[in-house]
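Same chain as my last thread, 515 residues:
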Amino acid sequence: MKINQLKIGSLLSYLQMGLSLIIGLLYTPVMIRLLGQSEYGLYNTVSSTISMMSVLSLGFNVSYIRFFSKYKKENDTQSIYRLNGLFLLIYGVIAAIVVACGVFLTTHLELVFDEGLTAGEYEIARVLMALLTANLAVSFPMSVFSSIISAHEKFVLLKLLGIGKTVVGPLVTLPLLLMGYRSIAMVAVTVAITWVVDICYLFFVLVKLKQRFLFGRVEKGLFRSIFNYTFFIAINMIVDQINWSMGKFLLGRFHGTSAVAIYSVGYTLYNHYHLFSTAISGVFTPRIHKTVLKTADDQSAQRQALTSLFTRVGRIQFLCLSLVATGIVFFGKPFIVNIWAGAEYGDSYAVTLLLVFSSLVALIQNLGIEIQRALNRHQFRSLAYIVMAIINLCMTVIFCRRYGAIGAALGTAISLVVANGLIMNVYYHKKCNIDVVYFWKNILRLAVGLIPPVAAGMLIDRFFDLNNLWVFGGSILLYVAVYAASMWLLGMNEYEKNLVVKPVKKILRKIGVGV
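reply #2:
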């Protein structure tokens, strides 16, 4: 049963990822148009402000499984129950802090919105702030129950409920938006669905798993051990909030909700791009750990094996991501302006470009994150990302005041290039037993295949009317065809070609076509 849970859970993860992408691309533009730029920006500003409080979790939920596994191996049921109680108590205290902070922000909205809101918009912001505060506060203690389910490896339940949230939310919200209800109704539906899922978690843990919660004396030094384990995870969470939420907060304060809306459209497209990259690398995680363990006594063999895997996966990711990135260059603006968001979101194109291209190095190298963990050398990444967050915050404050949404994206882009393009590459080469010079030589050889499609894209942009929907769609198909042919002939090696050829041959054999 365990194997089935893992396999089916993995398949459901990819299904949820695909559904999130499809629903996001279809639902978001409708939501943007029905809310309007100002209220869409207002919703994103409030959401980002509240989401920054999620760092209060300090990554404790990640450590639950570690200590649960320890007690499970020792068959120490009472310690598991005390662990449950300790985590519920910790998150209960955090929830109380969230409520206090949320109430303060709700009654002092001038700290978030310096100016530019009408009286009606201030009232909407207060209601949104209250709803999202309540949702976040409840989510902290409820996360204990989802962690318990995950520790018991009931992945199918978790993924099915996750898919339910992904699908049901837009299906319920869209009719309400069409009927004239706005952001408050949208958030209320999200909160209601989240709480229903939380109740399902609670029921399953108490009734099916028969877990108990003891609040007595816990193992000496347990809290300190939990904190030590989660310290660097907490740093990463803080850095993520600075990188991806602080820009919206600053824009809302300096420029108002319209600037937040413009940035949010660009960030949403970038987020889909980022999600796509993690789907490619995630399946290689077990192989990395096996490789590190197998070659632990032979550093030369380890360097060769890790470099080979790092390069092979990086090339595959570059093949996929560079198609999307270069496609955004030529087709991104007409897509955003004419199809997806609307004419008033023209600057979102520049935001998308800045975020996509500045993150490209990190995304084709995200296998390195798991290599660091396998080698137990992931602490440096946290420290490097602190530097990145500080640079990002300083640059964003400077640029967003002058250039608005584009300035906020520019600050993030500069920090990403410094941290991922420079600092982490040096660290991979010096400390993680990866030949980064060999990696980039391979990427540059592959990048030769970009020359024909980029030339084709420039010609399409020059001579085709991309404002026509049929021409736009046909141009994308033409660009993909040129890209595929060019990469096949000029860039891809035999291994990469076989990744395409072998599945095709297998399918053809199954349908009775000889190959």
